[in-house]
Structures are given as structure tokens and as C-alpha cells.
Amino acid sequence: MLSRIAWRNILRNKRRSFILILSIMVGVIALVMTDAFSIGMMRQMLTNQIGADAGYIQIHRKGYHDDPALKNSIVNTAPVRAALASDSAFVHISERLRTFGLISSASNSSGVSIVGIIPQEEERITTVHKYIVEGTYLTGKPDDIIISTATAEKLKVGIGDKVVIMASRIGGSVGSEACRVVGLFETFDSGFDQTHVYIPIATVERMLAAGGRVSEFVVNPMDPKQTDSIARQLRSRLPADFEVLTYKQMLPLLVMQIQLYDQIIYIFYAIIAIALIFGIINTMLMAVMERTHEFGIDMAIGMSNKRIVLMILTEAFYLGAVGTIVGLAIALAINIPLSHSGWNLAAFSDSLKSVGIGTVIYPVVGASTVLNAAVIIPLATVIGAVYPAMRAIRLQPVEAIRAS
Questions:
Q1: 193 and 85 in one domain?
Q2: Is 360 among the domain residues?
Q3: Domains: count for the chain
Q4: Do both 68 and 41 map to the same domain?
Q5: Closest Cα to residue 55, out of 317, 248, 204, 206?
Q6: What burial class does residue 215 get, using C-beta atoms within 10 Å of its C-beta: 0-12 exposed, 13-18 middle, 19+ buried?
Q7: 294 and 196 in one domain?
Q8: Cα(110)–Cα(113) distance, integer angstroms
Q9: Domain that holds residue 191
Q10: Residue 228 lies in a domain
């Protein structure tokens, strides 16, 4: 009965109720879309970094992550290969030999990270091969090299041109190799593009006289959810002079940003809720004042203060629930297609690439986003109706009945 009366009271002033529901809808849509866009952007930054270079798990000689010098690379790879053998059906594996050096052309030179890879293995680990915009990926020839479009522009070279790479060996001498550019790549991250070049691992090994050294083994579980468990297993199998790092240790700032955002979003929820509470207070207070005569009669015939308060709070809850449900439906109808097609922000490509995000953002609507909106918004409307309800029960029946 009380709920039926509350719903009837809402319909008595359709215009005011519609405006309030509309404002709640707009708040919910803005909340869900902002949350979905931000989560999608954060996760995309992390996924891009994992896919471009880091991978999910890396195995190094202990201390290499803090000081990635050639002298700290893995000399004896047998223990690593033995540890990975039992997981070979569940993971993709690639080995790299990397160093910092110089790439030069007839026109210019640039400092870069020279990454020696086995092309077929690396294709299963990273996404660089998908970003080739001109030419081809590494074909396996020893003098092949792929560089970014930014590096090519700086060196003033193109497909088929020769460049020279140089880097220091362990003994202090300088090794060099002449390579031919076979492909140009352009990723989501302009900073990454300017500092990375890829060549066959055998070429780097020859240039550095590395003698079979490997800088890192990159391991990608076929199911990324198994990253932590596989990393623990590898740590237990390897000697103490090796380190096994997951992307959480390799990309701590990005992981921390995502964790920090999970906390900051509640501040945004609080701001929306507080604004909604003041709107509800204003609207419900107006409704209470307009129904002073009605409340006086209700009190005179014996309606308890508790039932009056419950009736007003129920009205507010219904308004909040309707606005939230409709707002969520509209927000999901907008975001679900965008989560597949993406939101193209090519107009801001330079800014996005400077922070490692692609030009297309894919919003992510999580269950927590929907649940938070479904709980917080109706709760805020009920809280906002508490003060008007208290004003209503403070009315004196005789004076309220006389009010016109």
C-alpha cells in the first residue's frame, strides 16, 4: 500500500518528476561513460606495453633488470631452457639479446635500444610485426633490420637503404654491423618508436662477440590469468642467480596508476552523489511544502511519523531507481558497441601516442561500474530525501490542515 501511494505521489507532478529523473539519468550516463572510458584507456596503456616489448613474464640473470648491461646477461641458458621445457605446451617463449647503441646513416645518427630477436618466436610474444606500415617484418636474413618511421625520418632512410649499428662489447671495444632496412613500424607510443630497432639475434651476438649470451627470456602464458602461478613455478625451478619478473614488477608505474584510479573513481562517485543529494533535497522539500495540507490530514487520521518518513523515502528511491535503470540502459547501449568498434580519437593522436595510447580507445564497462552506479545513485536519492522527510513530520497537524 505504501509503495502504491508513493508511486501515485510521483505521478501527481509528472513534469517535476520527469526533470528529476532526467537529471539522474544524465548523471548515471556521465558516470558510467567516464568510468568505462578511463578503465579502457588505463588497460589499453598496460596491454600496449605488454604487447610491444615487456611480455607477461621475463627471466633474467639476477640484477639485470636494475642494470641492463651486457655483462649482466645470461651466460648459461641451460637451466632456463630446462625450467621452461615442462611448460612449453602452455606458454610462448622468445629469447632476446639487447644492448644500447648507435644507429647511423649517411645523414644522421641516433641512440637506440638494439633488440636481437628470433623473428618467428617474437611474433608470438609481441605485436611489433602488426605495426609494420611499410616493407616487411624480419625475414631471417642476417643483415635485416626494422626501424620505426620516426627513426627513418631522422636518419633520412627508407626501405632498402643501409644503416650501421654500433655498440660496446664487454671488453670495451666497439662492434658494428651494416644492415639493410626491410621494414618500418609505427606503434601506439612515439617514445618507444624513437628508441627501438630490431634485428636477428645472431647478428647482435656477432656484433657484440656475446658467445651465446641471452639478455632475457620472455614468457607469455596462453592464458594471461596464469601469469602469477607460472612465474611462481619458474622461480621454484631456477637457481637463485636468476630473477623471474611479471609485468607487475616490470611496469610498476602503470600498474600503480590502475590501482590508484580504482580508488580515485570513488571520489568522482562521491561528487555525483553529493550533487544529486542537494538536487533531491531541493525537489523533495518543494514537494513536502506543497503537500503540507495533505500531511496534516494524514497525521490527524492517525498516520504515524514512521509511515510518513517511509513514504517520502520510498518516493525518492523510486525516482532514483527509475533514473538509474534508464541511465544504465542508455549508457550500456552506447558503450557496448564502442567497446568493439572503439572510439576514434585520431585528432589527438600526437598527444595519445606521447603517453603510449593508441588513437582508438576501447571503453570497458565492468561489473563493478554497473554495480556501483546501481547502488550509489539510488542510495544518494534516499539520503537526499531524509531532510525533507524530517521537515514533514515536524509539522503540527492543526496548522498543516489550515495551510492552503
A1: yes
A2: yes
A3: 2
A4: no
A5: 248
A6: buried
A7: no
A8: 10
A9: 63-239
A10: yes
How far is it, in rounded angstroms, from Cα 153 to Cα 134? Answer: 13
Cell of residue 242, nine digits? 636468476
The one-letter amino acid code at 240 reads A
Q: Looking at 239, 266, 289, which one is the last position of a domain?
A: 239
- Among 239, 264, 295, give the residue marking a domain's end: 239
Total count of residues recorded for the chain: 404
CA-based nearest residue to 224, from 50, 342, 368: 50
Q: Of 175, 186, 57, 189, whose CA–CA distance to 116 is shortest?
A: 175
| 198, 268: one domain | no
**Looking at the domain assignment, is residue 55 inside a domain?**
no
Verify that 35 and 157 share a domain, yes or no. no
Instruction: Please list the pLDDT of the chain residue by residue as tens digits (404 residues).
Output: 667 766 676 667 778 778 888 888 888 888 888 888 888 888 888 888 888 888 899 999 998 988 988 889 999 989 998 888 877 667 889 999 999 999 999 889 999 999 999 999 998 888 888 889 999 999 888 899 999 999 999 999 999 999 999 999 887 889 999 999 999 998 888 888 888 999 999 999 999 988 889 999 999 998 888 899 999 999 999 998 999 999 998 888 878 887 887 778 888 888 888 888 888 888 777 777 766 666 667 667 766 777 777 888 888 888 888 999 999 999 989 888 888 877 776 666 666 665 556 667 788 887 888 888 888 888 888 888 888 878 776 666 656 566 55
Cα 370-374-379 angle, rounded to 5 deg = 150
